[in-house]
Amino acid sequence: MSNESDAEALGGAEEPAPAVAPAGFELGTDGPKVILAGLDGSDSSWRATSYAAGLARRQGAVLAVAYVQPVLGAATALAGAAVEETTQEIADELLSALREAEHRVKEVWRVEWRFLTMRGDPYGGLARLADELRADAVVVGASEQAGHRVIGSVAVRLVKAGRWPVTVVP
C-alpha cells in the first residue's frame, strides 16, 4: 500500500509538515528563565514586583528586581553628593524591604531573586538590564504621575521598544 492509501485509510488525514522554528527561537527552553521587575518604591511598583515574584515562582524563573537611581538635572547637580547619598539610601531601603518580605513568606513559597541597582534614567536602565540579563519578561508598575500621560511613562516606552514582553501592573 502507498502512503496515499494509508492516509485515505486513516480518514484522509495527511501527516503535517514539520514546523520550522522562526529565527531567534531557542529550542530546548521551556518557559521564562529571568523576569525583570522595576521597583522605585511606589505602590504600583511594589504591586508589579509582587506580581513578577508570583510569575517567577510559578515558572521556576529567577526574579531580578531593579531600582534605577535617577540622575537628576543640572539644578540639583550642585547638591551632588547629598543627592547620590539619598538615592543610595532609597536603594538600601528597598533591598531591606525585599529581604523582609522574603522572610515573611519563606514558609509559603520561595523564589530565587536578586536585587540590582544602577544610576541612570529609569527607561534606559531597565532596558539595558533587560538586555544584559536576557530577560524573558519585564514587569513594571503603571506611572502614578499625571504628566506621564502626556509625555509617556517608563512603561509605555518599554512597550514601544518592543524588545521584551512587558506587563504593566496598575
From TrEMBL:
It comes from Streptomyces kaniharaensis. Belongs to the universal stress protein A family. It comes from the Bacteria. Residues 33-170 form the UspA domain. SUPFAM superfamilies: Adenine nucleotide alpha hydrolases-like. Residues 1-24 are annotated as: Disordered. InterPro entries: Rossmann-like_a/b/a_fold, Universal_stress_UspA, UspA. This is Universal stress protein. Residues 8-24 have a biased composition (Low complexity).
